[in-house]
Amino acid sequence: MSPACALIRHRPATNWLIQSLINLFAEGRIMPLHPNFNILNNDQHVEIFSAGQKIFEEGEPGEVMYFVKVGEVTIIVGGKSVCTVGPGEIFGEMALIDTKIRYANAIAKTDCQVVAINEKYFNFLVQEHPYFALNVMRVLAERLRKKTES
User: Fold this and answer.
1) DSSP conformation letters of 37-63
2) 63 and 124 share a domain?
3) Residue 14: which domain range?
4) Is the domain of 18 the same as that of 88?
5) Which of 28, 65, 85, 105 has the fewest Cβ atoms surrounding its Cβ within 10 A?
6) How many Cβ atoms are within 10 Å of 49's Cβ, its own excluded?
7) What's the domain count of the chain?
C-alpha cells in the first residue's frame, strides 16, 4: 500500500477533508485551475461550419465570441497559424470584450459546431455563472503569457 493510501486509510480526518473537497468541487464551489466552459455544452444554438470555411475575418467588428462544441478552429494572425482551438475551448473573446475590430482570422480546420455568444448572452453567463468570467480571464491570461514567452 502506498504511503498516501495508508495515510487516508488510517486518518479519518484526512478522509473527511478529501471527501469534503470532492463534494465542493462537484458542487462547483471550488474552481478547477484550467478553464472549464462545460455550461455551454448543452447550448442548442449552434452554428455549423465546414472544414476550410471562414468563421470571422481580421478587421471585422467583433460582436460575438465562440465556444467550440465539435471540431477544431485555426486562428491565423498575419497569415500565420498561431493556434488551434478544439472542443471545450473559446475564441474571439477579445473583440467582444473590448468592442474593437478583430485582429485575427478564424478558419474551421475540421467540420465544426460552435456556440456564438453575443454581448447579451455573455453578460447573462457572467451574472448567472460568475466562474464563467473567471474562466474567460484565465484563457486571456494564458494566451497573453504564451505570446510574451515566445
Assistant:
1) -GGGTT---EEEE-TT-EEE-TTSB--
2) yes
3) 1-29
4) no
5) 28
6) 21
7) 2
Which cell numbers hold the place of 69? 462544441
Contact between 96 and 63 (Cβ < 8 Å)? yes
* End-to-end Cα separation, the chain, in angstroms: 44
Q: How is the beta sheet containing 54-56 ordered, strand by strand?
A: 54-56, 105-108, 73-77, 80-85
- Provide the grid cell at 109: 480546420
The verdict on pTM exceeding 0.85 is: no
Backbone angles phi, psi at 80, to 5 degrees: -115, 135
Count of residues making up the chain: 150
